[in-house]
Amino acid sequence: MQAIFSSNPDQTRGRLFAERESAFRSCFQRDRDRITHSSAFRRLKHKTQVFVEREGDYFRTRLTHSIEVSQVARTIASALSLNQELVEAISLAHDLGHTPFGHTGEDALDQCMRTFGGFDHNAQALRIVTSLEQHYALFNGLNLTWDCLEGIAKHNGPVPHPYPLALKEYNSVHDLELHTFASAEAQVAALADDIAYNNHDLHDGLRAGLFTDDQASEVPLVGAAYAEVDLLYPELCRSKRRHEALRRVFSVMVGDVITTSTAILNASCVKCAQDVRDLDYSVIQFSKPLWDELKEIRKFLFKNMYRAEPVLIQREHAALVVCQLFECFMNSPQLLPSEWRGAVLAHASDLPRARIIGDYIAGMTDRFAQLEFDRLLETR
Prior knowledge:
The longest helix is centred in the middle third of the chain and has 31 residues, at 238-268. Helix 4 (84-93) crosses helix 9. The chain contains 18 helices and no strands. With 380 residues, the chain is mainly alpha-helical. The radius of gyration is 22 Å and the shape is globular. The protein has helices spanning 27-36, 39-43, 62-79, 84-93, 102-112, 121-132, 146-154, 165-171, 184-207, 213-216, 220-232, 238-268, 273-278, 288-306, 309-331, 338-345, 350-362, 366-376. The chain folds into three domains: 26-100 and 118-171, Hypothetical protein af1432; 191-306, no CATH class; 311-376, no CATH class.
């Protein structure tokens, strides 16, 4: 049974382009299915999470990360009696706008496009599902419900001014109420993202040898988990000990969100999904003590993983690839594939050209970006 403050597919604000709804799928199920069948979703398989995709099959990619976020979000949504189909759709779509090479690629492309409106991966995700995916006869994009689009655009909270250009443009024709909080389902997707990357980045960093189990245990939350495992299973081998410890960290994070959010929702007296949006605070939160613990994990990961020398070397090269590809295509648009070249050459000014080239580069996988760099620039 759904809670009174959950999103009800029968009360959706609908789609920008009216369609006959499915007889056997809710509108939110249909959103989820369109996302999983999209080209952008498939490309996440070969896009960096932290480690460059070619570094090994073991490490997380944007695709496996998105699937893990979806699993966490469904668990929390179920415990809070929220709509699991909507939370799953938002979770699976939340990283569609990421460039190759993770946040490094995003930072580099944002710098390249600074005079053309900049680049933001959340705004790009909205641009993909409303415009760049072009498979349907009657519209561009996926024509997702307002509820899903709202969650993609502002799952991290109200969008501050000035809005990223892609959000501003779309919002002018389909108001997503960017100044308010999103649904409880979207808020769940945001915290599920935090839980997933904190947990799997610890796991990947340990697997890569960037830090040791003993070093990770210096973080209080992680250390307590290892101590519990050692007490229960004193002779456990290293790999099982690590897994048992990190699954406990994971469980603590999920349980804390459920407990804390239940209390907030009960105290808020919200009576419908719109009431959640009208509040001036998020109803899905970590407790203050756990939030402080998570800040310690992030501090540890920044020092020992995100700023580790092997990762920094990758980041430097990734930024070079993205920036030089952008410059190359701006100076020589004839080097673009035919379908992109025609769109660029149809515009006389640099602004639309830069945005089309930005779309092209943002859609690249790690391996394709590297291949294009090698083909066009490495021998110059």
